[in-house]
Amino acid sequence: MRRIWVLLIGVTISLCAAEATTLNVAAASDLRFVLPKIIAAWQAEVGPVSVRVAYGSSGRLYRQIQHGAPFDVFLSADETFPRRLQQQNIAGRTLYQYARGRLVVYARSGDSKCLSLTRLVACEGRIVIANPEHAPYGMRAREAMLALDVWAKLKPRLIFAENIAQAAQYVARGEVAYAVLARSLVSSPMLSDGRWQAVPENSHQPLQQAGVVIGDAPPSQAVSFMQFLQSRQAQTLFEKFGFQPIGASSGER
């Protein structure tokens, strides 16, 4: 009888430890508004799982994970960084594509005459983009400007933000007149007074978003969470917040 009680106590302790596990997520900044909604929907299905999210540019988060940052899941605005982690045997073999990002030109004043990269050449005022050295939205903004032959003309007026969420803050505070942002951020309350227009998708490489599970022994909830990102419920939320869902054709919507 004593042995049975010991076994039962051991099982109880194990269950409590499992319930207390925290899922640590490294997430691209363009997910700042949609991810809390998705996490809440997932928790409603699986129960009370603790989730801790760190937002940043995908390139910076990739470097942190390379150097041993204790994340269980990495959600990147570009699939290049998760693939690199797989090649380095830092991440699991499965790549979870969950959405495609969209690039837009945003004007704080609400004036529509400057809502394209080519028209910005003739408009006065500084422009903020995410840093193209490590932020996918900045990389794609630079690609689009080069493709449209306006990079050299606009570069002297550019300000580089650490990530796409910081770029949104710059223009929201009035520190710049224009921004090249993620579509997922321009519907936020802090940007509701401005206007925006999509950047032609054929002017840059796709912002194919993807994630991976990190490490050899991640929490059991990690795979469940990644699979949920591809569910119909999560895909509906992604689309509501300005992303293109999995399998959607590129082009203006």
Task: Note down, in words, how this protein is organized.
The protein is α/β, with parallel strands linked by helices. The chain has two domains: 23-101 and 207-245, Periplasmic binding protein-like II (D-Maltodextrin-Binding Protein, domain 2, 3-Layer(aba) Sandwich); 103-198, D-Maltodextrin-Binding Protein, domain 2 (3-Layer(aba) Sandwich). Helices cover 36% and strands 21% of the residues. It is built from nine helices and ten strands. It has helices at residues 2-19, 34-46, 58-66, 80-87, 136-147, 151-154, 164-172, 221-229, 232-240; strands at 22-28, 50-56, 73-76, 96-101, 103-107, 127-130, 158-161, 178-182, 195-198, 207-213. The strands form two sheets. Strands 2-1-3-10-4 form a five-stranded mixed sheet, sandwiched between helices. Helix 2 runs antiparallel to helix 9.
SSE topology sketch:
Elements: H1 2-19, E1 22-28, H2 34-46, E2 50-56, H3 58-66, E3 73-76, H4 80-87, E4 96-101, E5 103-107, E6 127-130, H5 136-147, H6 151-154, E7 158-161, H7 164-172, E8 178-182, E9 195-198, E10 207-213, H8 221-229, H9 232-240
Parallel strand pairs: 1-2, 1-3, 6-7, 6-8
Antiparallel strand pairs: 3-10, 4-10, 5-8, 5-9
Helix pairs in contact: 2-9
